[in-house]
Amino acid sequence: MTGLSEKQSNLLLMAVKKNNGVITLSFAERMYSGKSSAKSAIQTFELHDLVERTAPGTWKIVKLPEDVKKQLRNMQNEKSKEEEYDKEPVEN
Prior knowledge:
The chain is built from 4 helices and 3 strands. By secondary structure, the protein is α+β, with helices and mostly antiparallel strands. It has a single domain (6-87), classed as Winged helix-like DNA-binding domain superfamily/Winged helix DNA-binding domain (Arc Repressor Mutant, subunit A, Orthogonal Bundle), CATH 1.10.10.10. Strands 1-3-2 form a 3-stranded antiparallel beta sheet. The longest helix has 22 residues, at 66-87. The protein is elongated and about 55 Å long.
């Protein structure tokens, strides 16, 4: 158990989905109320060995907590179901 907040989990999830698993300070700031809150979230990720710093202001996700993995799988399953539904022929 990593003890991440819902907002921190969402930040990891969005970074994987929308930013190829990369968290930049500006990306984190968009989800938080300001720079200090974003930095605090990233420090928490570093404390739990979830990210590695790749450049100033940039971190790569190296490990995801189980709850975030589960959310990601659920999202992918939902997307697959939608794609299957879209492929079904329409009856006239």
